[in-house]
Amino acid sequence: MRRKIRVSRKLSQRIALGILILATILVIIPVLFIIIQIIVNGSGAISWEFLTQPPSDAGRAGGILPAIIGTLYLMLGTIIIALPIGVLAGIYLTEYARDNWLTRLINMAIMNLAGVPSIIYGLFGLGVFVLAMNFGMSLLAASLTLACQALAMTITTSREAILAVPRDYREASLAIGATKLQTVRHVVLPQARPGIITGAVLAMSRAAGETAPILVVGAAFLLPGLPQSPFDQFMALPYHLYTVAAHVPGVPEATMWGVALVLMVVVLSFNIVATVIRLRARRRRST
Amino acid sequence: MEHSTSPTAAQVLGKNLRRRWRVREKFIEGWILLAGFLAIVVLLGIVILLFKEGVPVFLHTPPWEFFFGTKWYPVSEPPTFGIAPFYVATFWVTLVSTAIAVPVGVACAAYLSEVAPPKIRETVKPIIELLAGVPSIVMGFIGLMLLSPLIQSMFNLPTGLTGLTAGIMLSLMSLPIIVSVSEDALRAVPNEYREASYALGATKWETIKHVCIPSALSGITAAIMLGVGRAIGETMTVLMVAGGALAVPVSPTEPMMPMTAAIASGIGNAVQGGLQYQALFAIGLTLFIMTFTVNVIADRVLERQKRKFAR
Amino acid sequence: MGTRMKKSLVLLPVIALLMMAIVLAGCAGGTSINITGSNTVTPLSSVWAEDYMDANPDVSIAISGPGSGVGIAALIAGTTDICQASRKIKDSEIDQAHDKGVNPYEIQVATDALSVVVHPDNPVSELTIEQLSAIYTNRLTNWREVGGDDAPIVAIARDTNSGTHVFFKEEVVQMDGLPTEDTSLEYGNQVLFLPSTKEGVNEVAKNVNAIFYPGLGYVTDDVKPLGIKRTDEDTAVLPSVETALDGTYPIARPLLYYTDGVPTGVLKDYIDYCLSAEGQEKVTEVGYVPLP
């Protein structure tokens, strides 16, 4: 009797662990499959012309430069707006806020902003920035919209980064007579900088990949030149992918995958930069 | 050493400088305070806008008819707005996505947290993060070109553009967050619990099953809720592969139109302030309330998890 | 020192790209034309715009295709010069425009034949308008009922973002102009409303059961156009440039430009180009039907 139980326990252990490994493989396979598909199908379209020329023939030929530049402008616009606010809000939450209902409300608001569907941000941007503030379908309106979406991430990562600075640093600074603000500016922030920048880079990468908000706020299909001012219209990579895949007849398949590839490269390179910054900072702190 | 200025003058100078510092600091601190409240302002702004633009539709269509009506004809004259097909579709797509992503995701998290050697952990985690970085439009594209014909032939359906297809692509998109948060929850379980379990003679699997997962249940639940929120709110993928039919779906293998796709499918035509515009914002309001509820639940559950293991 | 260097490492490529962008952007100035509206007309406008800009380098034309409705709204709001539309402006919209002091001026720039396509292996090769209406109201649900195989009909349509949605509903589903006309009919609830014409064509190419109505310019060799008969007694006509021009093909619709008042200056020059022989040649290239 005892031997039978022991065997079945060992067996169920093996099976169970096997299933866990299987689950992990089940997660990894689609990732690799998708990445490989994009690389294999898209690299055929990549050329110097593809990356530096504007589209011609309604997107069937030529390149995607305005979409790349537009996406970069969007990322920049988003972070220029979202980062300072995120850092200031992070400072407020760690250094000034008291543990009362107001702070809990703010924290709940932040958490909810993170979960709002991107199309709702699109509707918000349309109603407020495009129409009410009359910015039109411009880089400014789109950046403001994406910045609202990025706000949750920049506030959270800034707050975490500032919280992680040891209290001793602050106390030492206050002990030699610095004010709270001086402490924050000269001691806490420099220490928190890697964490803050990591969050900023991740927020930019997320902004690069968003389609729904700019679909609603209004990216352009074809622009003859590049946006000269924040009030100009713009093209963007995810919207361009949607347009050539869904709306323009006769686009060569390689072109569609090529746009997807460029978009993935942009998003991933920013993710990698963020990870590198995070790892470097962690290593430095542990020495 | 002799100072060139008398002590009294220096004191006065110092006091003036300090006052100017204090004024400037108060000014900057004002901005900090403002920034702190901005999150609330934006959230409130979203709620107010959705209400302001969406609620007027109820003057045209009574709420009962709006929420339980099954006919959506926004461009007919007269238009009818019944959104039952949309939230039922959202339900199906979310159900499929969760049914796949939760078991697989939690199992994967358990493997990474409890079983995997550190080298494998360090390799697999970035790969899963990669999945989170794939933009939704690319996922929709892949679902369209590769998954949909497969589903059509496998289940012998009239078309592969179904809630099932969308649900599968969505599960891929929820997996990274479910794995990540579940793994954090599992690693937060104190080692003493595991050691006690081994000391009683349990195997690794028995420890995972009877000790680790139950202890981390709050965190895992929060992970599930976050994944559900992601699935409810996703637009581009479902727009491209869920099928877009207006019937109230009774099975996930039907083509359907979730709420996010319904908004995206009409916003290009809706004239500002018109009835269709209002109806779409009303759907947005409904959607927002759904995701808001899910997020609040997730937050509460995560708080409970943190409090449980705080020493 | 370390973090400062790291910060500049991140900033440097960003600044470099910015400078490249500014350099590549070229000089500003010159006149600009804004065209927004239907995504059906967008490929046509793009080709015209490109050629016009090649010939007139100091004019820049921006095009976006969020939907006919948005285009009309933009015209009324004064934020666009030309509204491209695949449906006629509604009376209520004309009233709204007059309220804002805008006078919509309609110019037909091309015609589009809506081609009804099925999978090449589908044995059915012609349908009447009445049968199409029955299919799209889900009264006919099996191909066997129209002379095909025993298989379910998957009717595909465009979503409300597209002007085609309304046009097809009025012309075909409601059978405008036929004795069987019925303006109370709506699309059936089994109909798939897809966000793009290409996706609809893709689905028909992959799915033996599907049927869809893309514009002529979207028809590929992977799908089979059906001959359409107005009534049972007529002969079935296949969609083509010729049959659309001579009016024998029953489902053709105008592609329109709307401006505020009669166009002048650069606008007039551009539109004149579009309507010229050279411009109309481009129409066939894109796949639509030029004006007679």
**Distance, first to last CA of chain A:** 56 Å
Strand content of chain B: under 5%
**Helix proportion range of chain A:** over 70%
- Could you give the distance between the termini of chain B? 56 Å
Largest sheet: number of strands, sense, barrel closure of chain B = 2 strands, antiparallel
Strand content of chain A: under 5%
Low-pLDDT segments of chain B: none
Coarse structural class of chain B: mainly alpha
What is the mean pLDDT of chain B? Answer: 87
Number of helices of chain B: 13
Question: Can you offer a commentary on this structure?
Answer:
The complex is a heterotrimer of chains A (287), B (311) and C (292). By secondary structure, chain A is mainly α. In chain A, 77% of the residues lie in helices and 1% in strands. Chain A has 11 helices and 2 strands. Chain A has helices at residues 2-42, 48-52, 65-96, 101-115, 118-132, 139-163, 167-175, 180-209, 212-217, 237-246, 253-286, and strands at residues 55-56, 61-62. Chain A has a two-stranded antiparallel ribbon with strand order 1-2. With 311 residues, chain B is mostly helical. Chain B contains 13 helices and 2 strands, in the order H-H-H-E-E-H-H-H-H-H-H-H-H-H-H. Chain B has helices at residues 7-54, 57-60, 63-68, 84-115, 118-133, 136-154, 163-188, 191-199, 204-215, 217-233, 236-241, 259-266, 275-309; strands at 72-73, 80-81. In chain B, a hairpin with a 6-residue loop joins strand 1 (72-73) and strand 2. The N and C termini of chain B lie far apart (56 Å). Chain C has 10 helices and 12 strands. The radius of gyration of chain C is 23 Å and the shape is globular. Chain C starts with a helix and ends in a 6-residue tail after the last helix. The chains are: A mainly alpha (287), B mainly alpha (311), C alpha/beta (292). Chains A and B meet through helix 1, helix 3, helix 4, helix 5 and helix 6 of A and helix 1, helix 4, helix 5, helix 6 and helix 7 of B.
Can you give keywords for this protein?
heterotrimer, B: 311 residues, mainly alpha, two-stranded antiparallel ribbon, 13 helices, 77% helix, flat, C: 292 residues, alpha/beta, 5-stranded mixed sheet, 10 helices, 12 strands, 38% helix, 20% strand, globular, disordered N terminus
Topology of this protein?
The complex is a heterotrimer of chains A (287), B (311) and C (292).
Chain A: H1 2-42, H2 48-52, E1 55-56, E2 61-62, H3 65-96, H4 101-115, H5 118-132, H6 139-163, H7 167-175, H8 180-209, H9 212-217, H10 237-246, H11 253-286
Antiparallel strand pairs in A: 1-2
Helix pairs in contact in A: 1-11, 3-6, 3-8, 3-10, 4-6, 5-6, 6-8, 7-8, 8-11, 10-11
Chain B: H1 7-54, H2 57-60, H3 63-68, E1 72-73, E2 80-81, H4 84-115, H5 118-133, H6 136-154, H7 163-188, H8 191-199, H9 204-215, H10 217-233, H11 236-241, H12 259-266, H13 275-309
Antiparallel strand pairs in B: 1-2
Chain C: H1 2-25, E1 31-37, H2 42-55, E2 59-64, H3 68-77, E3 82-85, H4 91-99, E4 104-113, E5 117-118, E6 126-128, H5 129-136, E7 154-158, H6 163-173, E8 192-194, H7 197-206, E9 210-212, E10 224-225, E11 227-229, H8 241-245, E12 252-260, H9 265-275, H10 277-286
Parallel strand pairs in C: 1-2, 1-3, 6-11, 7-8, 7-9
Antiparallel strand pairs in C: 3-12, 4-12, 5-9, 5-10
Helix pairs in contact in C: 2-10, 3-4
